[in-house]
Amino acid sequence: MRHRAVGVPRSALAIAALATVAMALPVVALVARVEVTRLPELLTSESALTALRLSLLTTSVATVVCVLVGVPLALVLARCSFPGKAFVRGLVLLPLVLPPVVAGVAVLSAIGRRGLLGATLEAWGIELAFSTAAVIIAQVFVAMPFLVLSVEGALRADDGGYDIAAATLGASPAQVFWRVTVPRIAPALAAGTVLVFARALGEFGATITAAGSLPGVTRTLPLEIYLQRETDPEGAVALSALLLVVAVVVIVLTYGRQRSGPWRRRPGPDVAAVEWDAPSPGSPLSVRAAVPERGLDVELDVAAGETVAVVGPNGAGKSTLLSVIAGVVQAPGCAVTVDGRPVEEAPPHRRGVALLTQRGHLFGHLTASHNVAFALRGSGRRARARGVLRRLGAEQWRSRYPDQLSGGQAARVAVARALAAQPRVVLLDEPLAALDVESAVDVRAALAELLGPCTVVLVTHDAADLAALADRVVVLEEGRVVDEGPVDAVLTRGRTTYVTHLGSSGSY
Ligand SMILES: Nc1ncnc2c1ncn2[C@@H]1O[C@H](COP(=O)(O)OP(=O)(O)OP(=O)(O)O)[C@@H](O)[C@H]1O
Question: What is one term from the GO cellular component aspect held by the record (predicted)?
């Protein structure tokens, strides 16, 4: 099956064709000028091979440094807020707009003998200026923004919901980074790495300014080409063609891999299911959520095994209340007790509280089975995951990736994953809102059967959820509790317009 793309205007096609010709012209002209008969002799000259080796070495080291430093930098820029963040981002991206020669002068001003760090480095016996290390530093300086831009963009593409889902399933920040974040940003990381490699390989101005042109030490291939233009133009053309080939090989290798789609963990061999009886019994929950910035001031107690539905108009503070319980939002006036123990200082992965939102946030690189296994600890996780999926009526989709599931199927898998973590408290934020009526009925029935022993806080706008799932309902308006009690009583007395409408909706 193929998806058919929406057509593009003919004018765009014509412009794209012209642009392609214009971009190809210099490359074709370069290749046409190469003297094929002299090519072996020109490319295997001592100076050419030395420059090529040096270019590949410095470019590879610079690329590794950019990845090791750039990914954490992008992560901090995308996920943290701190004073001066805009300034830091501007500083990191500055080399993109600096003329390379200025970048070279800047690097030399930092590491040169009379530079900012020169005396300190000299005292330690380190001389960086006009060394191979200076070439690498110049390459890192000019290429780093490409990596940071690619990775930060990918990280910003979601609101952190996948990370939050992983944390509330018990994953530590390091596990979230390696098992969720890195696979998700893998395509952007690969693209950024190619750009860094290409930029570093072609670097000229900053290198010659900061490192000079010492054969075998700092004379990379672009510098060798430039110098050869004076004495041997044919040799310069041949070396340019060589640089072109190296760049094309890198791009084809990386983008060729990307064409096969985002990175996915293989389903692995099938395993027999280990039966899963039911989620473990929940714990009592007590919460005081005071978040003045969001106008929320609520106290809520939920008994062990009780399902409390929180209802109220948009912006009433329902999701914020769940975020406080899960530990995603922290404020000085908040206190959360699970099983009698205060957890407000504990990070989300140590609270035993699973949060399931309407988007589900299934990890796209994992099959349904691996998604559920993510929430499990100990041996035989795949077999136990299959048992949980069977209990939710989702076993048949265990080898599918999330983008191969319908909304209803994905919701069942997401519920399976949340319950598999055996949380002490389950938070459900409109878990059925994205489903069609039929799927919602199915998943609601599965929830009604399974949530029995769990302690649940359920946010919903649907009266059918109240009828099927809730023991008690709490009504929020403008961040305050305006009514609470058994579902029938609250809906019958209809203290607010919202509740009156909810009670008279057909589904109750
Ligand atoms: N990330 C945020 N940063 C700042 N304010 C926020 C943020 N998220 C929500 N708010 C504000 O907090 C208040 C409560 O929002 P919240 O999302 O908790 O309401 P809600 O009852 O869940 O609404 P809905 O039914 O639309 O989901 C609103 O005034 C909202 O504008």
Answer: plasma membrane
**In terms of CATH architecture, what is 285-504?**
3-Layer(aba) Sandwich (3.40)
Which residues line ligand 1 at a C-beta cut-off of 6 Å? Answer: 294-295, 312, 314-320
Residues near 398 by beta carbon (within 8 Å), at least 6 away in sequence:
367, 368, 369, 385, 386, 389
Q: Determine the Cα–Cα distance for residues 370 and 266; give it in Å rounded to an integer.
A: 9
Domain layout of the chain by residue ranges: 22-259, 285-504
What's the 389 CA to ligand 1 centre distance in angstroms? 33
Q: Which ligand 1 atom is the nearest neighbour of the CA of 322? A: 18
- Mean of the pLDDT values across residues 92-108? 92
Check whether 358 has a pLDDT greater than 90: no
CATH H superfamily, domain 22-259: MetI-like (1.10.3720.10)
Which of ligand 1's atoms lies nearest the C-alpha of 295? Answer: 13
Mean model confidence pLDDT for the chain: 88
CA atoms in the 13 A half-sphere facing the CB of 385: 28
Total-model pTM: 0.79
pLDDT at 3 exceeding the cut of 60: no
Q: Average pLDDT, stretch 319-334?
A: 91
Residue from 164, 291, 300, 318 whose mutation best tests the ligand 1 pocket (most atoms within 8 A of CB): 318
Q: 394 pLDDT exceeds 60?
A: yes
Query: Alpha carbon of 481 to those of 1, 16, 164, 459, 471: distances in Å?
Result: 52, 59, 26, 14, 17
Q: How confident is the model at residue 289 (pLDDT cuts 50, 70, 90)?
A: very high
Q: How confident is the model at residue 507 (pLDDT cuts 50, 70, 90)?
A: low
Query: Quick one: angle between helices 381-391 and 407-420, nearest 10?
Result: 120
Q: Which residues contact 249 (CB under 8 A, 6 or more apart)?
A: none
CA of 294 to the centre of ligand 1 (A): 7
